[in-house]
Design goal:
binds zinc ion, Cathepsin B, Chain A, eight-stranded mixed β-sheet, globular
């Protein structure tokens, strides 16, 4: 893929660790079959890099959208859910915007939570591109929304006759997993990356052989997203449901499913589970489990927000799973790094060796706290203070 002409959101400003810690916020009133919407909103409200961004009001302070803006709506909602003293709020602005989030949504109808999530994230992506609609495709993948949820899949077809390889790459916002033949998410991911034989009617036109040939096609994750959304395909075309339990881990190593095997662990941590209970897509009930910024798990079922343990979280009939990348884990280390910086800034006399030691420590902590994307502004001491030391 061609390099982007412009970076629309600096990756260094995406912070995976929580900027503030507190217990889970408000529950959400069900305003008539709106549990599909409530459960998705709650999962997004506690997705660390998205919530950090929305809580900072950075978007609305520079938003150039005229009229409907999904990111502004989400920003207002998340701030309200986090900061209200009420035990539950009404997500009225999101509900009023429903027809603009997706033209096929009908007020009062039970909708598919995955569909709503997809439309919401896409609407936020559109909002991030407002005023810059003319950007090349690569640049469009540099919005904050795509940098949080987006990854790239590689599809590789290998001709069985001449061994010629052809690659193509496509962006994704979530990974749909077939669960019919899998009893766990890891088994479903293994099936997802298993080479598929293209033969007979599905033969492949090989350019080098110049004929239809038998070939092997394989998907792998070329670039992993910061927040990995997995959708367990429970509903068939007619809305009929596969109700079986599919096991999913608290920590998921993505290495076996990547195009290039990485040397380091690519360990994702479960951050939210969206559950569907009931027999079909058009009926039943949605609720979710999310990990709040205090590091604790909560069951969120419309107005109800209740503490629960990880064993409960891992025992659900999951529909959507949200995993966050390794860099999101180290909230504690990040706070420690901030504390160190404060000490450096407050200390009037610091010996050169001590300063050096602190700088090394901070660099290490910064790396741990934010992985690929250290939030420099938050962690580096101001340059002027440095000079004084
Ligand atoms: Zn906006
Ligand atoms: Zn060939």
């Amino acid at each position: 893929m061609a390099p982007p002409q412009r970076i629309l959101f600096s990756p260094e400003k995406i912070c995976m660790g929580w900027q503030q810690r507190q217990r889970a916020g408000a529950g959400l009133y069900n305003l008539g079959n709106t549990c599909f919407l409530n459960s998705v909103l709650q999962c997004l409200t506690y997705t660390p890099p998205l919530a950090n961004y929305l809580l900072s009001h950075e978007h609305s302070s520079s938003c150039r959208q005229q009229g409907f803006c999904m990111t502004c709506i989400m920003e207002a909602h998340v701030n309200n859910a986090w900061n209200t003293s009420a035990s539950a709020i009404q997500p009225r602005d999101v509900i009023s915007a429903l027809p603009r989030i997706g033209g096929h949504f009908m007020l009062g109808m039970q909708e598919d939570a995955h569909d709503f999530l997809r439309c919401t994230v896409t609407a936020m992506q559109r909002a991030c591109l407002a005023g810059s609609s003319a950007w090349d495709t690569s640049s469009q993948y540099t919005t904050i929304v795509h940098q949080i949820f987006g990854g790239f899949l590689r599809s590789r077809v290998t001709c069985c006759s001449c061994k010629a390889v052809s690659n193509s790459c496509e962006a994704f916002l979530d990974v749909p997993l077939d669960i019919e033949a899998a009893s766990s998410v890891t088994a479903a991911l293994e099936n997802f990356v298993k080479p598929e034989r293209l033969a007979g009617e599905n033969s492949f036109q090989c350019n080098r052989c110049d004929e239809m040939v038998t070939a092997l096609k394989r998907f792998t994750i070329d670039c992993a997203p910061r927040v990995l959304t997995l959708c367990l395909k429970r509903f068939d075309f007619y809305g009929k449901k596969i109700g079986k339990f599919v096991q999913y881990p608290q920590y998921l190593d993505l290495r076996p499913y990547m195009s290039q095997g990485a040397a380091e662990l690519l360990l994702y941590t479960l951050n939210a589970v969206l559950v569907h209970s009931g027999g079909s897509c058009q009926a039943g009930h949605y609720f979710c489990y999310t990990k709040a910024s205090d590091g604790l798990w909560y069951q969120m079922d419309d107005t109800l927000v209740d503490r629960c343990d990880i064993n409960t979280v891992l025992a659900q009939q999951a529909y959507l799973l949200f995993y966050v990348s390794p860099s999101a884990i180290a909230v504690v280390t990040q706070n420690l790094a901030k504390e160190l910086i404060r000490i450096v800034q407050d200390t009037v006399i610091v010996t050169k060796q001590y300063k050096k030691f602190l700088q090394i420590m901070m660099a290490k902590l910064r790396k741990e706290a934010c992985g690929r994307t250290p939030p420099r502004s938050a962690l580096l001491p101001p340059a002027r203070k440095e000079e004084q030391l």
